[in-house]
Amino acid sequence: MLFTTSYIARKGLCQVLRSSSSCGWISSGSSPACTAPSAARREHYNSISATHATFGARRYHYNISNWMSNTRMDKYTKESCGSLHPRNSTKMPLMSAGSSPYSSFMAQKDTLPRLPVPDLHATMHKFLKSARPLVTAEEYAVTENLVNNFIQPGGVGETLQQLLVERAARLDNWLSDWWVDTAYFRYRMPVVVWSSPGLVFPLVEFKNDTEQLQYAAKLIAGAVDYKDQIDNDRIPIEMMGGKEVDMSQYFKIFSTCRIPGLTKDSVCHHSQDPDTPKHIVVMHRNHFFRVDVYGKAGKLLNPEQLVSQLQDIVRRSTRDAAPVGILTSQNRNVWGQAYKILMKADKRNADHLQTINRALFVVCLDNVVTPSTGNPMTDAALQCVHGGGSKGNSANRWFDKTIQFIIGRSGRVGLTYEHSPAEGPPIANLMDHIVDYIENVKHKKLLAAVELSRPQRLQFTVPSELDAEMHRAGDVLDSLVEDLEMTCFIFESFGKNFIKSQKMSPDSFIQMAIQLAFFRIHKEPGAQYESGSTRQFLYGRTECIRSCSYESVNFCTAMLDPSYTPKQRLDTLLAAMQSHKSYVQQALKGHGVDRHLLGLKLAAIEAGMDVPPIFMDVSYNRSSHMRLSTSQVPAKCEAFMCYGPLVPDGYGCCYNPRSDSIVFGTSALNSSPETSSATFRDALETSLRDMRDMLLTTPKAKL
């Protein structure tokens, strides 16, 4: 299979290759059923695979937080519309007193180290090691020869490495511009499912419409309160290993919006404009309303006043408007053309689009209840990820907005965020703050704004040529909605406290359980992506942690082979976790494999050189085809992040380790004859329990 240049460069260098899994169709039961898929489903699956081979399978990646605790082994600059420097950060306290606005954050440009260019030989050695368990001996021998030719003295590898060194000498971060350009702005698949994650808040129940609006009002007030803390420098600098981490992403999550282009997107960021935006946009039944959240005297509206504004919006939007919002769910080239038509159709359209772009965030009041899966967590996740389709709430969205909160009449609450400006942790911290604010708002004495401006309706003039486009967008999205299978659940048998009691890292433990679950289903290892943060560097973002290793395969084999004793299985688990720990430490220091390989390949393309053969090799392709896209996104409350799989025959798996439970959001594609998120859940729960039982049968005194 041939891959386009932009695709090969995409997100961890993931190429779509059909898996050689021995089992065909996976049922939604507790065990795989190897029966043939229907011809229609197989045709649909092949279509998706071909699409990904052309456009790539984009997936966001998050950092892990507090990844290593008590191991059981010895062992930002203002931008307008244009490119956006990617940033990253981690978990942090809710609030803290600070100094002058921006001073702490902006000083980091002079104090944080720059992202290093890893050693060429070290990277290629790690690449070979990570690819070995995924290929045959014959395939590995070919790869080894290609690597040796690539790194030979005076060879193409050294030439490309020198180009990276020179780039690093003249830029604050040699990777950041390349990264946001290839991973986001040139990626043309829809942001829905393929890029934008959902974050599900703790489940709530609304007895009536008023309670929904009261909750929404408190949520709005809490979000604006958090923005005020950022603007007034009341967010403490985070630390990692005693060192400051880059905090600039926090300035990029409000008043930010992605702008579609014909071949490449851009982003507009307005929170540091001289006339700082003081409004939000509220959507209800596909209508758009501008709501000023500060009164004319400059005071923040209190929740009671916000309820009044929301009630006015609901009264003025009793019927569905034209589904303009659903256009944002389309392929980026298609949406870029429609955006251009919409802008030119009426000057007011351009003004309305600018109002949306500049808004602090979007609030989506949903009253359409889509069919239930029978699982409230999964129902909420699907609303946050895609909104349920054209007959659901998907037109009541603006998927280009960095933050849009979802408040459903049924109690499905959360947010969807466009991923290019920030990683998950700042968004999770925002969510934590809002939940805390909602629970304690009755204790806050909020001053009311003296005067209120009535919400302004943003009435788009929709040219007739976009009628068919909106219908087409709905059809495309409905197909994707039907294809995405999600299974979200709380694993209640134990949580991170038990794992820590065994002197093990909860993250490493869960990563091995995920690998074991895959192995249990497919009888083979799968390339596994876990995101590690490089935020200790200026404008650092993420690096891929390749969790699948020779050691993890040995562990999976031991756990499924009855001839191994508990002690032998434990030994393989410790070795696998030690391998994971080693890779994590290297990745966090900027010495992973994937970003360096991406840089080398882009350096060749930028210099007009041929792409080296190593990037077309089967080992490179297979070890970059991440069938497991995983991330730990901790939250203080019982919330979780969720997203679609990275590749058509893969799984998405995001988790929030709690003291005595683990919250999971898993996904797969129904069109894949090989995967099922329901089956994956069963295998994952079984793997976690088997690992616990193995530990409990191994005397601690011998560890």
TrEMBL record:
Keywords: Acyltransferase, Transferase. Coiled coil: none annotated. The lineage of its organism: Eukaryota, Metazoa, Ecdysozoa, Arthropoda, Crustacea. Residues 115-685 form the Choline/carnitine acyltransferase domain. Gene3D superfamilies: Chloramphenicol acetyltransferase-like domain, Choline/Carnitine o-acyltransferase, domain 2. GO terms for biological process: carnitine metabolic process, CoA-linked. It comes from the Eukaryota. The active site is at H419. It comes from Hirondellea gigas. Belongs to the carnitine/choline acetyltransferase family. GO terms for cellular component: peroxisome. This is Carnitine O-acetyltransferase-like. The keyword Acyltransferase applies. PROSITE patterns: ACYLTRANSF_C_2. The keyword Cell membrane does not apply. GO terms for molecular function: carnitine O-acetyltransferase activity.
